[in-house]
Amino acid sequence: MIDLVLGFLQTRLGQALPRGPHGEPQEKLFVYAGSDKNDATSFKSDAISALLIRIEEEATLRPPDRYARTAGDGVRQRVEPEIRMNLWVLFVARFPEYGEGLRHLSRVVAYFQNHRVFNQENSPELDDELQQVIVELVTPTFSEQNEIWGSLRAAYLPSVLYRVKLVVFRDPDARSLIATQELIQSVSQAPSR
């Protein structure tokens, strides 16, 4: 699921922000950050790298009874709760010319300012497992920024941090179990001939 979200954002940015001299998309403008043998994070030159730096559970939207679900016929059932996650994604610009990196980073900010919510209506290519993806700018303090770059074991590069909200993990077995239970109940309640 996490890979679907990051891949979707990378593809959308690549399509929406062409870089070629005539507006054509340039391959590999948006890439994933990597690491080398000493585990220091490396960022590809002449590209904007996406790096997942944190995963957190979104607890504010949790239902009061996490294990209860009401079926279509009103019967309450016990299921494993879904988990709603927020992904913290750092976009890092590494270009030979500092100004070019700032220009591309500005384009990322402008794109997400105009496209904060992605769903099946405005993004039909969004995977069916993802109902909605919300992108929110996060401004870390100087000490938080220092901690991020220190943990990456890399020198600071122009970057912007986003919280990608509401990646929902559901147990597919629980959904099929509920559907089966609902089918059994509807058949058993149907009038016999």
Question: Which tags fit this structure?
Answer:
4 helices, alpha+beta, 10 strands, 32% helix, 6-stranded mixed beta sheet, 193 residues
Summarize the structure.
By secondary structure, the chain is an alpha+beta fold. Helix content is 32%, strand content 30%.
Explain what the structure shows:
With 193 residues, the chain is of the alpha+beta class. It has one domain (2-189). 32% of the residues lie in helices and 30% in strands. The chain contains four helices and ten strands; from the N terminus they run H-E-E-E-E-E-E-E-H-E-E-H-E-H. A six-stranded mixed beta sheet has the order 1-4-7-10-9-8. Strands 2-3 form a two-stranded antiparallel ribbon. Strand 5 and strand 6 (76-78) form a beta hairpin. The longest helix is centred in the C-terminal third of the chain and has 18 residues, at 172-189. The chain is globular and about 65 Å long. Residues 174-184 have low confidence and may be disordered.
